[in-house]
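Re: the multi-chain job from yesterday

Posting the exact lines I submitted so nobody has to dig through the queue logs.
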Amino acid sequence: MFKPEITIHSDDPRVQEFLERIENGEKIEVDDWMPDDYRLQLIKLIAMHGISEIMGAFPEKEWVPKAPTLKRKLSLMAKVQDEVGHGQLLIRVAEDLMHPLGKTREDLIEDLFSGRLKFHNVFHMPAPSWADAALIGWLVDGAAIVTQKMLAHTSYAPYARALKRIILEERFHAYHGEDMVIALGDGTEQQREMMQDALNRWWPALLMFFGPPENGEIKSNQEINIRYKIRSKTNEELRQEFLDKYVPQIRALGLEVPDDNIYYDETKKQWVYTHPDYTYLRDVIAKNQGPRSQNRLNLRKIGFDNNEWVREALLHNQKAIS
Amino acid sequence: MSKDVKDYDVYEVFSQKEPTGKFESQFSLLAPNADVALAMAQENFMRREEVPSNLFVVKRENIHFMPPEKRKALLRLDNKDYRQPSHYGYIPSKWRELKEKNAPKASV
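And the result, structure tokens for all chains:
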């Protein structure tokens, strides 16, 4: 493991100069000098983001063969392809940052299999009905969009460039998801019930995705990311934005938010709601022990092993057999 | 020892929207050779382009980037307005003035 030598706390004039650049709103490029902890925080964040996109294709692809119509199947496939494409972009950004440390894409994959590299497996749950597929497109993507919009202002230029492209494509994802839930929510009684069931199943995971609230105590890790302008909002601020956008949509569909205590506090201008059990994040999810985490990791491993011969064959200039 | 993705090369991807348009950098990708790089570039970056007219890839090692300290020299001093058309903005009205001044006198 690479130990950071020069950090935000170092008494090195270059760190001061670097922080001034950041404060002036300048963007950092891959070949610019950067403190070690800036590099490491970025690798951790972007590798996790990229791998989460790739892993996220697994729950979504389950519904490709079972999509109710050909049109639904085509648009769902297009979306799954986008997710893998986003993974490709983000992993490239992480690779360029890891290059000076002598690490490659293979190390990322190994770290994923060994559990050292985390992914958003809070969303790796069973998706028993088509309404789950619709809900993933609508709210799981919706939660990701809230985070990505904030990250698009990051101080690291290559990440911001990748996110610009990703966010453009996410506009299709958002409408794709809304198109599916509107059909179900505005459909028959049975369809609306399916939708409500799916919402009940996914609600705690959606809230958990943003991470525990800070309650005024920002962890040093997050504080570093905010000072370096890698991120600009706290977990709770992002969760509030998510609720701002989606609680009205949920209600417009005639569905109920599965929380009897949720209300908007007009004076504080924020949502008051029942928090999920965040210890589940630390004790279960962070250990890749969610309901489908191991299953989906295993799928990734099977894919990686089965394609080994392809990766190897492509490396060698192939001569036509005459 | 089998080779694996660590031996793949980084390719930078460029595209052109129309034949008279400029080349635009799309992003980079990792590929074992140029053919695969082009196929991946099309899948990764051309999914929604309206009528792209061209696409190409360059191994990154063949591109020479300006190092960070030299990039600062790209900043121009703001004293070169004589290079800008707007610096010559007085010209159209001056032409009108001259035409009037030197118009052939109507013969009496």
